[in-house]
Every structure is written in C-alpha cells, then in structure tokens.
Design a protein that fits this description.
The protein has about 180 residues and is an alpha/beta fold. The chain has a five-stranded parallel sheet with strand order 2-3-1-4-5, sandwiched between helices. The N and C termini lie close together (about 5 Å). It is built from nine helices and five strands. About 30% of the residues are buried. Bound molecules: BIS(adenosine)-5'-tetraphosphate (B4P). The site of BIS(adenosine)-5'-tetraphosphate has 29 residues, from helix 1, helix 2, helix 3, helix 6 and helix 9.
C-alpha cells in the first residue's frame, strides 16, 4: 500500500470525504489544509482572523500561512500521510517538493478526482458550509481552473498522477482509489 499520497481535484469532488476514510483505515496522517484553516477560524487565532475573509470569498489563503501549517505537521509525523487540498497552486507545489526532499519523504501517488461542474455545484450546495453559496462556489471553480489545475501537468510530468472518476457512490469511488493505492 502506498503511504504518501496527495488528493487533487476541484472543490466538491469529494477529496475530504475520501481522504478521511482512507487515512483512518490505513492509519495515515490526514492533512486537510481546509479543515486546519477552519479550525484556526473557529479558535479565533490570529491566523484564523487572516484566513476567514479570504475563505468566505472563495479565494486562496496566503501561501506562507498554509505552508507554515503543513511544514509543522509533516515535521512532527513519522509515518505515512495523505495531503488533501494542498498544494493549491504551483508555488505551494514547489515549496512542498523542497520540503519533502529535506524530509526524504517523496510523494508516491497523486490521485486526481474528476467531476462535472454541475455535480460539483449540486454537492456543495447540499453541503451548505458558510462558503457554499452559488456565487462563491463559481468563484472557487475559477480559482481552481486558474491556480490549481496547472498542478495536473506538474504531477503528470513527474509520473505520479492517476485520475479517478469522482461520480458514483462514496463506496464506488473509494474502491477506485483503493485499486490505485494498492497497485
Ligand atoms: P477545502 O476544505 O479543501 O474544501 P473543498 O475543496 O471545497 O471540498 P472537497 O473536495 O474536500 O469536498 P468534500 O469531500 O467536502 O477548501 C475550502 C477553502 O479553504 C478553499 O476555498 C480555500 O479558501 C481554503 N484553502 C484550503 N486549502 C488551501 C490551500 N492549500 N491554500 C490556500 N487556501 C486553501 O465533498 C463535498 C460535498 O460532497 C460534501 O457534502 C460530501 O458529503 C459530498 N460528497 C462527497 N462524495 C460524494 C459522493 N460520492 N456522492 C454524493 N455526494 C458526495
């Protein structure tokens, strides 16, 4: 089983849903930058105060803030991990490559979850988080296309990328991902 995984895909593709289950069943550290940022907002920390308005607009929080969070978590961990929602742009991907070289922990697999916009919007509207209204969702999809989608070619060029159809039940998608992690 692969131990160092990265989940990539548009907002609402189900990265968090799948990552949580897989990390729990395989004993991997689940590192969701979205969840970590929401926890900071909840705790009303200085970082949370900076992140809150940015997230509400559907934009990306600054690379420095996100990198500081990821760096400290990866340095503390000793086993496998699953990065969910990070990196989100090329600068974050390059910083991650450097950090993982320092830690001698190379990525083993990048899973790209693919889903049509209509289904993404439907899923997010029914989730109903505070940043899940239609206008903000459409902006998040634009941000994904402009800033995050270029990572697809970055990881494809490294021979790490495998795409998964993210339509279907949670169980169906989990078994598609399991087939890749066990290959
Ligand atoms: P995230 O928390 O990463 O969330 P997401 O991309 O919106 O959702 P995800 O793909 O994880 O979908 P989920 O499983 O929840 O990002 C939120 C914000 O945080 C960003 O906009 C940004 O501001 C900030 N941020 C995060 N990381 C950052 C970074 N690295 N740099 C800068 N800023 C960052 O699934 C969605 C819904 O679909 C759920 O309701 C779920 O129950 C449902 N669902 C899942 N699978 C399903 C299925 N198979 N069938 C039907 N419904 C399904």
């Amino acid at each position: 089983m692969k131990q160092r995984l990265l989940f990539l895909g548009p907002p609402g593709a189900g990265k968090g849903t799948q990552a949580q289950q897989l990390a729990q069943s395989q004993g991997l550290l689940h590192l969701s930058t979205g969840d970590l940022l929401r926890a900071e907002v909840q705790a009303a920390s200085e970082l949370g105060r900076q992140a809150e308005a940015v997230m509400a607009r559907g934009e990306l929080v600054s690379d420095d803030l996100v990198l500081a969070i990821v760096r400290s978590r990866l340095q503390q961990g000793s086993g496998g991990w699953l990065l969910d929602g990070f990196p989100r742009n090329l600068a974050q991907a390059e910083a991650l490559d450097t950090l993982l070289r320092e830690l001698a922990q190379p990525i083993e697999l990048v899973v790209l979850m693919e889903l049509d916009d209509a289904l993404l919007i439907q899923r997010l509207l029914s989730r109903g988080r505070s940043d899940d209204n239609e206008q903000v969702i459409r902006h998040r999809l634009e941000v994904y296309r402009e800033q995050t989608a270029p990572l697809i070619s970055h990881y494809r060029a490294l021979g790490l990328l495998h795409a998964v159809e993210a339509a279907g039940t949670v169980e169906e998608i989990a078994s598609r991902i399991a087939a890749l992690t066990q290959a």
